[in-house]
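Justification of resources, computational component.

The compute hours requested in this renewal are based largely on the per-chain cost of generating structure records like the one below. Each record pairs the submitted sequence with a full structure-token output. That output is archived, and it is also reused by downstream analysis tasks.
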Amino acid sequence: MLSFPRRPLRVGLLREAARRARSPWARIAGAAIALSLAVSPGVAFAQASALLDEGKALMKKGKLAEACPKIEESYRLSPRSATLLALATCHEKQGKLATAWSEYIDLSAAARKEGNKRLEADAKARGARLEPRLPRLTVSVPRAAAVEGLEVTLDGAPVDSASWGQARPIDPGEHKVSASAPGRKKWEASVSIKRGERKAVAVPALAKDGSAAPEPAPAEEAPAKEAAAATAAPDKDKSAAGEGKGAAGEGKGAAGGGKGAAGAGKGAAGAGKGAAAPEQAAAGPEEDAQAEEPSEAEEPSEAEEPEASPGASPKHAGSFVLEVGAAGGALIGLIDSGSFGDLSTYSYSYNILPEGELIAPCNDEVCHASFEPAIGPFAGGQAFVGVALSERLHLGARVLGGYRFGGGYLVVGGPSASLRFGRLWLGLTGLVGAVGQDAKVTGVKGEIPSELVDHNYGRTEVGVNAREGSLPETALVETLAFGGSVEVSLVLADLPSSSWTSGALLLSAWPTFMKGLDGFVIAAPVGLGYRFY
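The structure output for this chain reads:
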């Protein structure tokens, strides 16, 4: 069995380590490393705490531009939930809503991991409060503009192709969108966006850049040059021809497109042909330049197309607008007079002479019923069709309709206009249409001719001759009504995009007041709808 001298080797290693440890530089380096490892976390935590205190003090004084960077550096040195909460609060006060919203989301996730349910709920509530006020920017790239190598950036940061056409939260203020591609002219656009605003930028087709360096031509001449070099190998019998070919090689190199035969002559002829090489050298670049320059017919037509406006939006002027939704509320009918069914079964009497009386049959022209007010809930829907005259102004027509529970209906419509203020749409609609209510009948009266009013004690109408119980208890009374409504809509979710689903989810109310031929109609519908634009 083989054995190894382990003990002497171990002793030698120990002696070598002890010798090195006695070196002053080694002792200093070891002490510095140990001190840094022991002290660095404590120093970083102390610095982070000091920066956090300074940042909070500056934030209380309203010096947000100085406070936020200090709190951000504190979080970098020591990432704690309390510091992240202060940082998100500072950014929110500074107006960087999207940044603060993102930090609240991170804070909620961190609090969940820590098991701090109160902080998690607080972070979620703060983020939910900010979300409706977030500006959102959609960067869309049409198919014609999506060339190979296209790079789109927002404020210098790349925009991944997977997020093209999607609305993304962004801080209010000025932003720059740019696009570039190999061999294409760079495009840039500035976008100014406010709180709660929704905008979109469409990247146009980039024009070709004629000043860009042309791609290197295929190396087709390399084999020819190698063949020429092989032919011009050292040959004692043809040294003069070799020199002539060497001169021709120079001429060919200058001409670029010259022919090898121009300098391949023998003896004196070689020199003569060598003199002809400059002419070909002058002609060669012109031919190459003409071959490299694209003709006008080959220029891309998209370069002549006008570029999209940097502030373009899915709600751009001229776009079609459609809104549909369900509505419900209260319908109050104050129609106190009207007709119902067939009144010809009734008659009434009035004096025609001091001693005479006339019994006249009823009809819709001379007899009418009186009704009590009718109040009840109704359910239905509404629709708006129009165009976007601008990003904030929509003009078109609106229709409101519904069924009143207990009997009755409302079907009205007319021209409508809506104006947007942040997340609120306010509008006016002129309405005309039919209204019906099933109300209690209080009686039926007939009209006395005006020339006989004096013979009837000044009365203009008189009750009909109806048997007891012959009048219906309730009846449907209908009337044509004119009026208007006020639109108050809150944007619950704004979803701009380049597809047909681009639009917004609205919670709306349309207080409506209308005048009928006999009486008034008041409606208070509230509904949930989606406006496509």
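DSSP finds nine helices and 21 strands in the chain. Residues 24-60 form the longest helix (37 residues).
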